[in-house]
């Protein structure tokens, strides 16, 4: 019931319903696509062909982030939130609405493995940049601990 009330208070138009549904579908297909496509092919799929110019882009950007976080946080068992999934969805919609963002991929050595083991575990992270600055990240300082290994475009 809380979910329905939250949706009713945040969705005000048919465009909002379509945006939410589009994000929901994307969140469902990204895990399949990441298993079967190279990064370059994946990025070509997630780069929109047609750009839409809006007058109130800040409001649209706020909705995109809000709906993406809602969908990914809705049911963790089905829609497990990952930085890659979140970054790909935000990248697609921000590019679609003519915001010049780049998606970045980085790695770092994990501190989770005890020092007695000589094998180092590598962690990955994905985030967005706009005008050379990290954007829409919940923890920018943590993101800065990753070494950027690939940027698109």
Characterization of this structure:
The protein is of the alpha+beta class and 153 residues long. It has one domain (2-152). The chain contains 6 helices and 4 strands, in the order H-H-H-H-H-E-E-E-H-E. Strands 3-2-1-4 form a 4-stranded antiparallel beta sheet, covered by helices on one side. A hairpin with a 2-residue loop joins strand 2 and strand 3 (133-135). Helix 4 packs antiparallel against helix 5 (83-96). The model has no long low-confidence stretch (mean pLDDT 84).
Supply the helix-strand structural class.
alpha+beta
Averaging pLDDT over every residue, what do you get?
84
Count, helices: 6
String of helices and strands: HHHHHEEEHE
Beta-strand content estimate: 15-25%
Oligomer: single chain
Q: Radius of gyration from the CA trace? A: 17 Å
Number of domains: 1
Number of strands: 4
Range of helix content: 40-55%
Strand order of the largest sheet: 3-2-1-4
User: Main sheet, how many strands, which sense, barrel?
Assistant: 4 strands, antiparallel
Structure in a nutshell:
By secondary structure, the protein is of the alpha+beta class. The chain is built from six helices and four strands, in the order H-H-H-H-H-E-E-E-H-E.
What attributes does this structure have?
6 helices; globular; alpha+beta; 153 residues; single chain; four-stranded antiparallel sheet; 17% strand
Layout of helices and strands, plus pairs?
Elements: H1 2-10, H2 14-36, H3 39-45, H4 57-74, H5 83-96, E1 102-109, E2 122-130, E3 133-135, H6 140-143, E4 147-152
Antiparallel strand pairs: 1-2, 1-4, 2-3
Helix pairs in contact: 2-4, 2-5, 4-5
């Amino acid at each position: 019931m809380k979910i329905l009330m939250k949706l009713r208070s945040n969705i005000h138009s048919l465009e909002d319903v379509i945006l939410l549904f589009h994000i929901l579908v994307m969140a469902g297909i990204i895990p399949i696509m990441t298993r079967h496509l190279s990064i370059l092919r994946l990025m070509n799929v997630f780069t929109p062909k047609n750009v839409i110019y809006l007058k109130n882009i800040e409001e649209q950007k706020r909705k995109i982030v809000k709906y993406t976080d809602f969908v990914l946080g809705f049911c963790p068992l089905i829609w497990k939130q990952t930085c890659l999934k979140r970054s790909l969805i935000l990248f697609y919609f921000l590019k679609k609405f003519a915001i010049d963002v780049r998606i970045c991929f980085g790695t770092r050595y994990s501190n989770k493995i005890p020092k007695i083991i000589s094998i180092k575990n590598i962690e990955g992270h994905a985030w967005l940049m706009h005008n050379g600055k990290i954007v829409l990240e919940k923890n920018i300082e943590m993101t800065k601990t990753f070494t950027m290994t690939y940027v698109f475009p």
